[in-house]
Amino acid sequence: MHLPSISVDPAMLRPIAGPTPNRPPAHSLQSLFSAISPAAADISQPAVIEPREIDGGTVTNTEVDDSQEPGRSAPLSNKIRSTLDAIVLLARRAKPLVEGTVAALPFSAVLVIADVYEAIEKMKGTATETHSKLISRLEVLREALEKTENAESRRRIVEFVQDLDSVGIRLKAALGTATWRKVFQTHELQTMLEDLDSQMCDKTELFQLDILLANERDTTAVLESLTNIRLKKWLLAPAATYNIDNKRYDAPPRNACSPGTRKAVLAQIQAWAEDASTPPIFWLSGMAGTGKSTIAYSTCGDFDINDSRDPAIVRAFLGASFFCSRQAPDLRNTGNIIPTISYQLARRCSSFAASLRSCDDDVVRQTANMQIRELLVNPWERSVHSRDARLPSALVVIDALDELDSDDGEAFLSCLVTAAMDATQDALAGLKILITSRPHPKIAKLVSDLSRKTILRLEDINKQDTDADIRTFLDKEFRTVKTLSLSDHELTQLVNRADGLFIYAVTLCRHIMPPRAIEMLTAVDVREALEQLINVENGIAGGEGLAVDALYGQVVGNMLEQSSLARRENEARRILHAILIAAQPISLDELTALIPSINAAFALKVIDSLYAVIYVSNGHIHTYHKSFPDFMLNKTRSNSTFCGANSPLHLTFYESCMSIMTKSLRFNICDLPSSYLQTSAASLDSNTRVDFGVITSARQGALGNHAQRTH
């Protein structure tokens, strides 16, 4: 039999008077018991459960007098029974659909619960307050369940009724053949019934919240109606999502905090996200290498809930994420942020998705300020009216605003903060936005109007806590080498050298313990590498520079030393320079085209020797962290390894780029058979694709970086 669908109208699941899930009701039947006298009703009837027929299935009922005085309204216990009957029938229909099997009349013990409430009502002569609250909740649930065809809601129906059935089974076993008089005069049974009363209120309230959350996350029907505005085209940067397959989308690698670290920071963010009374925007700032992105990644993971989570403990869930990066054009384009976030939110919040129906599709091509208002703030404000206030907040995480082109991060944040402050008090209720960036003065000034509770500067954290976290990370990483055990003194030396920068610790481990050789490393190998590093001057005497500079300097110095032995140091410098100043990650073919004097084999040797700071993904060369290009392109910090703006190499690469374009650019470069055929529809051979990629890199290099830096 087909189960009717639950396309639940939010108004139907109206808030019901009663306790919230995290504050169980202090129900007590003690006053009820004390008010009952033997003369109030004939309670000498046995509590034996006898079968009776209902809707073709066997259910149970106690031996109670169902007679009713003429003109008197039906007892509330009868309504409880009939509503439970209906819910049981819905669950019986759903069970085969959920489990794929046909069960013979399951859930037959549920109505024992109705028997208890019926006996209570007959003994007292009237219904209790609990009866009224329970019937209200059950009726709302029945109405909602009768309308569902959602598979997830079906599963929840079956689980809920199975839970009630287990309660009925325990009741049936405990009651046995005792009379109702004995039941209500036995302390143990009184306690059991008090627990039942409390459980029923809690279970129905939690199930109602569960259904609310399931239907808020069921966006299928709403998304079908959004096809007219081509929602999928709003996903302008799929690689921006926190847990995307970085190899498939050629995105920078992202990692969570090492277990046991950053507990206080993560707890502060969690407390803000789960507190409905806190401001909607939270700013996390820190210098390069302090771990902002790993904190943002861990936060995403913590709030990326699944359907198995207890709705009673869900206070916020991940609605969307966007991780900016200067290494990928899509991830440093401000215009991609809000459309991509709106796309993700629409797939997780049906109320928000419904509010997007009236949005103009052309807004994705407008300014960031217009996008923020038309694709985020205004639609969310419209959705608030149809969104149940008990639903958990939706968390949006935007990482590394400082990685956007030019000063776009500052402009974007200004628009976002202004839009949030201009909105009415409850317009953004249920929406939380976490933003991370470096502590740029302009950005810091913009967020100064936010509450102190929603501004967290990693530099302000107790240094002892940060050092302890770095120590935990290093200890864990070094334990991956067999027989290696660093002393407390050795760990302390490394922690002091890190000087609060997690990127130092991460780069150190990659440099000393290459991932590809970790199985072959011995404790002796690691100790020798550590001694060499510790004996190298850190280059920051007198407090100048950053602690990580010495490590970067040694990594580059080792590479140049190896190349010097082959008398190819200058070529190695050119390779590193080309990688760092390219407008986007370049391929090996593009690299050798820019530097005709080198071959692919030598280029790979240079790249391999820089494994601690550079990696290859999908054939393109990336840097692990933005702090490495920052170091190399700063003359004060990089000293002899300098390849900055005034380097002669810039002019050399500019000339190479112009030469490639002069030789290769021509009319109809793709050899299309017709000018009416779009390039995307053309079938290009592999040689054409390679040439086109080289030319594109040359154009971006010449016009984007080198021309600017050589003037």
What's the tally of helices? Answer: 28
Task: Give the overall shape.
Answer: elongated
The termini sit apart by 77 Å
Q: Which CATH first-tier class of the largest domain would you pick?
A: Alpha Beta
Helical coverage, percent range: 40-55%
As residue ranges, the low-confidence spans are: 1-73, 537-544, 686-690, 706-711
CATH superfamily of the largest domain: P-loop containing nucleotide triphosphate hydrolases
* Assembly category: single chain
Pfam family, one: NPHP3_N
InterPro entries: NPHP3-like_N (IPR056884), P-loop_NTPase (IPR027417)
Protein name: Nephrocystin 3-like N-terminal domain-containing protein
Organism: Pterulicium gracile
Write structural notes for this entry.
- Keywords: Repeat.
- It comes from Pterulicium gracile.
- This is Nephrocystin 3-like N-terminal domain-containing protein.
- Residues 1-25, 50-76 are annotated as: Disordered.
- The protein is α/β, with parallel strands linked by helices and 711 residues long.
- The protein is elongated, with a radius of gyration of 33 Å.
- It has three domains: 30-213, no CATH class; 228-460, Rossmann fold (3-Layer(aba) Sandwich); 536-644, no CATH class.
- The relative contact order is 0.07.
- The strands form three sheets. The chain has a five-stranded parallel beta sheet, sandwiched between helices. A two-stranded antiparallel sheet has the order 1-2.
- Mean pLDDT is 74; it is low at 1-73, 537-544, 686-690 and 706-711.
- Helix 17 (463-478) packs parallel to helix 19 (502-512) and helix 19 (502-512) packs parallel to helix 21 (548-565).
- The chain has helices at 30-35, 76-99, 111-124, 129-145, 151-175, 180-185, 187-217, 220-225, 246-249, 263-274, 292-303, 337-348, 350-355, 368-384, 408-422, 441-446, 463-478, 488-498, 502-512, 523-535, 548-565, 569-581, 588-594, 600-609, 627-632, 635-638, 648-664, 686-709; strands at 49-54, 57-62, 281-285, 316-323, 393-399, 431-437, 455-457, 614-617, 620-623.
